[in-house]
Amino acid sequence: MATLQRRPGPDFINRGMPLSQTPLGSVAAINFLKTSDGLNWPHLHASLIEQGPSERGHGGVPDLWIATPLDPTDMSFNIDRGQKRKTVPARAVSILAPHTPVAVTVETPNVRAFHISIAAKLLTEVAAELFDCPDKMEIVSAVGTDNRSIALLLNAVMHALQEPLGGAILEIEYLARAIVADVLARHAVQRARPVAIDRGSSLSSHQLQRVLEYVEENLSQALSLDELAGVAGLGRTVFLQRFKRSLRQTPHRYVVAARIRRAQNLLSKSDLSITHIAAICGFADHAHFCTIFRRLLGATPSTYRQESK
Q1: Residue 10: Cβ-neighbour burial (10 angstroms; 0-12, 13-18, 19+)
Q2: Rounded CA gap, 202 and 224, in Å?
Q3: pLDDT-based confidence at 16, cuts 50/70/90?
Q4: Measured torsion, CA atoms of residues 36, 39, 45, 49, in degrees rounded to the nearest 10
Q5: CATH code at 220?
Q6: In whole angstroms, what separates CA 27 from the centre of its chain?
Q7: What is the pLDDT of residues 244-285, one digit of tens each?
Q8: What is the pLDDT of residue 27?
């Protein structure tokens, strides 16, 4: 098990997460069919690989590592000094917690697999949104699990890798958050040891006003927790906790709701195309906008527009 810790790391937002920062970066016996290097995905790196029988290992990296084989794979692995051997079915999901040493031996020739690494920074951010005491959560590594929700999300990331579109960066951010939320829901446990958390005040009225105005002015852009915390003049963790006390919801949830509110206004009062509205409101693309809109309002944007006019 590995504790979710706040550790300094590379500036993923500015330069994207490179292959060299992932567990695969130092492995020579792998044929990389496709990687996200050069796509500027800020918190997630993806690799589609092919390999024959090989051995590899590393002492643990600060990020979350998830892999799924595209072919049945015979392998043995040593995680946290526990040696096991098994046949991992195609599309089964393996999860390696941050800072976990691992040694893996692949015995099947010419197998393909899809790997992602998600930056510790995003892992900590999502954990803070989901739990009151994120520092008490630990992720438990698992090999060859039947996790269909993560498998579907990984398939969406792989599709974006093979056919990158203009809105892929924002789409990948949403997918990365969804993957982390699923991992935390299914593969995280709570430590018993108490930790100190901020139990101070809510955001001041001035801080809250500045943040909400900033959100409204920048809804067409990706809005990170660090960015909003900077507007409030606070560290990310304190800002998150005080924002939740002020509005009874996380910043991420508030931003999504604000995007939907603006979309509702544009759908009812303008003749802009739904694709254009999706871009104005900061959604990755038409499909992503329709999915979120229907999930929150129970109707598609087209239906909402027809009924509101």
Answers
A1: middle
A2: 20
A3: low
A4: 0
A5: 1.10.10.60
A6: 24
A7: 889 988 899 899 999 999 999 999 999 999 999 999 999 888
A8: 54
What are the tens digits of pLDDT across the range 147-161? 899 999 999 999 999
Task: Note the helical H segments in 233-272.
Answer: 236-247, 251-269
Here the tokens at position 185 are 């829901």
Would you state the structure tokens that stand for residue 21, as one six-digit string? 């920062």
Give which of 90, 85, 79, 73 is closest to 151, Cα–Cα.
Answer: 90
Copy the structure tokens of residue 215: 């959100």
Neighbours of 118 (CB within 10 A): 26
The structure tokens 């796509």 sit at 39
CATH of residue 101's domain is 2.60.120.10
Residue ending a domain, choose from 160, 190, 220: 190
The phi and psi torsions of 46 (rounded to 5 degrees) equal: -125, 145
pLDDT tier at 7, thresholds 50, 70, 90 = very low
Structure tokens at 192: 């018993």
| Mean pLDDT value across residues 201-221 | 91
Residue (of 223, 209, 227, 299) closest to 263 by Cα position: 299
